[in-house]
Amino acid sequence: RGQRSELMQFVAPVAGTVTQVHVKAGEYPPAGAAVQLLGDSPFRVEMFVSEIDVPKLALTQSGSIELDAFRGTDMQLHVSEVESTPTLKDGVSKYGVKLDFRFRHDELKVGMTGDAEVTTGIRTAVIRVPRRSVLDDENGVPYVRILTADKNVDKRVVTIGMEGESGDVEVLTGVSEGDVVIVLEKK
Fold first, then answer.
1. Which residues contact 14 (CB under 8 A, 6 or more apart)?
2. Is 117 helix (H, G, I), strand (E, B) or coil?
3. Please, is 72 exposed, middle or buried when counting C-beta atoms within 10 Å of its C-beta (0-12, 13-18, 19+)?
4. What is the rounded distance in angstroms from the CA atom of residue 64 to the CA atom of residue 162?
5. For residue 120, how far is the Cα from the chain centroid?
6. Is the pLDDT reported for residue 2 higher than 70?
7. Could you read off the pLDDT of 135-161 as tens digits, one per residue?
8. How many CB atoms sit inside 10 A of residue 12's CB?
9. Is-above-0.85 flag for pTM?
């Protein structure tokens, strides 16, 4: 009598390319996935963001990534998902963010790394000062030091707006165009 063989069939949930097989002929499939599949859909970027920055994110915001393998090329992204629960990364709560490419990039490979940024807001025609020029008084109220026309130093309470990537902050109140803000004062 011959042995009866069973044919096991795997059906992929999406179209794609099988990149690894975790089972050999005659073996039963492992408890996890029997094969690893790379879907045909465009790649996406996954990153983790601190809880301080999560409230600034919204779906469809624009961003870009410069991959280590493609230095000097900014590839356009948009926010497609922000996780609602944190993940501990090095003991700190971080939130997963998924960004999709605006255009297909067939030259990309799984696991590539790079520097991504998301534009959370844009303001034009604003008064801005270096972040390091903004100090806090004993009550935690932010202020800047202004050099007056008679060479005295005037302490002015300020209201801070958006922070830029260059290290500058927007000043909503307390500073006027043309004011000389003191960044460093030698004693």
1. 37, 39, 40, 41
2. strand
3. exposed
4. 20
5. 10
6. no
7. 999 999 999 999 999 999 999 999 999
8. 11
9. no
| DSSP tag of 53 | T
For residue 36, pLDDT over 60 is answered with yes
How far is Cα 49 from Cα 58, in angstroms, rounded to an integer?
Answer: 13
Q: Which two tokens stand for residue 29?
A: 């499939």
What the block records as the tokens of 148 is 């007056």
β-bridge pairing 114-118 and 62-67: antiparallel
- 156 Cβ neighbours under 8 A, 6+ residues apart: 143, 144, 145, 146, 174, 175
Q: How many residues does the chain have?
A: 187
Can you count the helices (H) and strands (E) in the chain?
Answer: 0, 15
Identify the DSSP state of 185: -
71 touches 58 (CB < 8 A): no
Sequence-distant (6+) residues with CB within 8 A of 51 are 86, 93, 94, 95
